[in-house]
Design goal:
The complex is a heterodimer of chains A (about 280) and B (about 270). Chain A is an all-alpha fold and about 280 residues long. Chain A has one domain (about 1-270). Chain A is about 80% helix and about 0% strand. In chain A, helix 4 runs antiparallel to helix 6. With about 270 residues, chain B is mainly alpha-helical. Chain B has one domain. In chain B, helix 5 runs antiparallel to helix 7 (about 105-135) and helix 8 (about 140-170) packs parallel to helix 12 (about 230-260). The chains are: A mainly alpha (about 280), B mainly alpha (about 270). The interface between A and B is large, with 47 and 50 residues.
């Protein structure tokens, strides 16, 4: 019991430390709450330019949802967690290296996963807050109406998706130890997953091969499931199937992410590259 | 001149230490277009949009965004690479050495600007070749000189912005996120992904961004969309004349300020 409390305190300490570092750079701290709003607008304006309006008959035929803004917005809102996992978790170790504190942290009397869990806890709090602000602003500006009855199920799906995505974040953090240039790794994963996930389009528009790849990603079920419960998007699979597939993906991704992290950690220490740039 | 050459040599050596970056910058700007292609197909069910044609002068939205993606490589280079160049030196622990060397900091910055220009031009050429051989983009030899002319004008204007971005890094230190947001602002207000005429605010703000005029001209040349050659050239030259001295002045001002306050080595 004492050990669990000890670990929980270490996780919280990591979370608090991240908040403190972020607060130190105030322009950057506040920027993070506005950036997602600016990020999503080009995708909405692109939709307006192609469509000549807000509602699409073709999209409605394919998904049951005609509102391009609501459809696209939910996709990018959910994908915010992917960026957090890839960027924030990937960057965290590289930053510790730059600050000169990585070696110190890695010799602390806690297992490595505690450090990783601390990063994940911070990312969840931070991204959750960003998403909340983004959701309030966009839904108010564009007068988007959601089906509130589906919020509970949508939240379950989001929670499972986040845990699975953190498997990816842990893996990226692990690669950073050995491969150093973290942003190339982060950007590679986030771009490829963004292309294959049906963020602003249904699965049906993807080529068959990409459609099959898409079914292996937690973001696919996250985005489609949330859109189904909040906007009524038509799906070929039911809620139970989504949950089962997400749980399987979660186990595989987390195990794989932790495995890569442990491997790269051992590799880094064995080769003596932990503190090299 | 020797300072610029030495800076070039150093930057290329660092780049070669992380070879994955080279492949990344060639391929990724093209890959970023793919979600927009899928989104367009989901919204209208085809590759031609009448509404898009009314705004952009071409109904084919894929070549439109493809050209935007290629040209945006220069924007990434100016904002991202130039902005982070001094932050990287800070992390490597070499910033103080560089800025206290018997050389004017502006020359070092120019060296970084020349390095990024060469690199991004090489990336753009490879991306264009990919578009010509894989996507069937049509470029005739007679168009190459006007294209190079507008790329040069764009490059000069963007590096004025790049110098300012480098100055911001000296001032706020953790400018990585701010630079990212600046990139998003340029994405929002310039015709990289869509014609800015789609909204009155984007149309007004785009007037002040050099990328707007370069993209109008380059799309005109590459996709055969009607545009005013002289008007766009003169506006770009005008912006360049103002923005380069302004960027260098702001950098010198902030560099002196950080030295006076002793915050150069702060993280």
């Amino acid at each position: 019991m004492n050990r669990i409390v000890h670990y929980l305190r270490a996780i919280n300490a990591e979370n608090i430390k991240e908040w403190k570092i972020e607060w130190k750079y105030k322009p950057d701290f506040f920027r993070q709450f506005f950036e997602p709003l600016i990020f999503i607008l080009p995708y909405l304006l692109y939709g307006f330019a192609v469509l000549g309006g807000r509602f699409s008959e073709h999209l409605e035929t394919m998904t049951g949802v005609a509102d391009m803004v609501a459809y696209t917005f939910i996709g990018y809102l959910i994908m915010g967690f992917l960026n957090t996992a890839c960027w924030a978790m990937g960057a965290s170790l590289r930053k510790e290296q730059w600050y000169g504190t990585l070696d110190t942290i890695f010799v602390a009397p806690v297992p490595r996963w505690v450090y990783v869990a601390g990063m994940a806890a911070h990312s969840t709090c931070h991204q959750g807050l960003i998403m909340l602000i983004q959701a309030v602003v966009i839904t108010t500006i564009f007068a988007i109406v959601f089906q509130t009855a589906g919020i509970f199920f949508a939240l379950i799906i989001v929670a499972l998706m986040i845990l699975a995505i953190y498997g990816l974040g842990i893996m990226v953090a692990g690669f950073t130890i050995g491969l150093k240039q973290w942003w190339v790794i982060s950007e590679t994963f986030s771009t490829l997953i963004t292309i294959v996930t049906p963020i602003a389009y249904p699965l049906a528009v993807l080529p068959l091969f990409l459609r099959k790849v898409s079914l292996l990603l937690p973001t696919t079920y996250g985005v489609m499931g949330v859109r189904h419960f909040l906007l009524g998007e038509l799906l070929g699979i039911d809620f139970i199937t989504i949950i089962i597939r997400l749980v399987i993906i979660l186990i595989v991704w987390l195990a794989f992410g932790l495995g890569i992290f442990m491997f790269m950690d051992r590799f880094g220490r064995k080769k003596g590259v932990l503190s090299t740039y | 001149m020797r300072i610029i050459v030495e800076e070039l040599k150093k930057d290329f050596r660092i780049l070669l230490a992380y070879p994955a970056e080279i492949g990344f910058w060639i391929i990724w700007p093209i890959l970023w277009v793919v979600p927009l292609v899928f989104q367009g197909q989901a919204l209208i069910g085809g590759l031609h949009s009448t509404a898009f044609g009314d705004l952009a002068g071409t109904q084919e939205y894929i070549p439109y965004v493809l050209v935007g993606a290629i040209v945006s490589t220069y924007m990434f280079s100016a904002v991202w690479s130039m902005g982070n160049s001094l932050r990287d030196e800070m992390f490597y622990g070499t910033l103080e050495h560089i800025l206290s060397a018997p050389a004017r900091p502006v020359h070092i910055l120019l060296g970084k600007g020349v390095y990024n220009s060469i690199l991004s031009t090489a990336f753009v050429i490879i991306q264009m070749l990919i578009c010509v051989f894989i996507f069937g983009l049509d470029i005739t030899l007679t168009k190459i000189f006007p294209i190079l002319f507008f790329l040069l004008l764009l490059l000069i204007g963007l590096y004025g912005i790049g110098f300012m971005a480098a100055a911001v890094t000296l001032l706020v230190k953790e400018a990585h996120g701010l630079l990212h947001m600046f990139e998003y602002i340029l994405f929002l207000f310039s015709p990289i992904r869509y014609p800015v005429e789609v909204h009155p605010i984007t149309r007004v703000v785009s007037v002040f961004i050099p990328l707007t005029y370069a993209l109008i001209a380059l799309r005109g040349l590459l996709l055969g969309i009607a545009f005013n050659f002289w008007k766009n050239s003169l506006i770009l030259i005008g912006i360049d004349i103002i923005i380069i001295p302004l960027g260098l002045y702001i950098f010198s001002l902030i560099e002196k300020r950080t030295k006076t306050r002793g915050t150069l080595a702060h993280y």
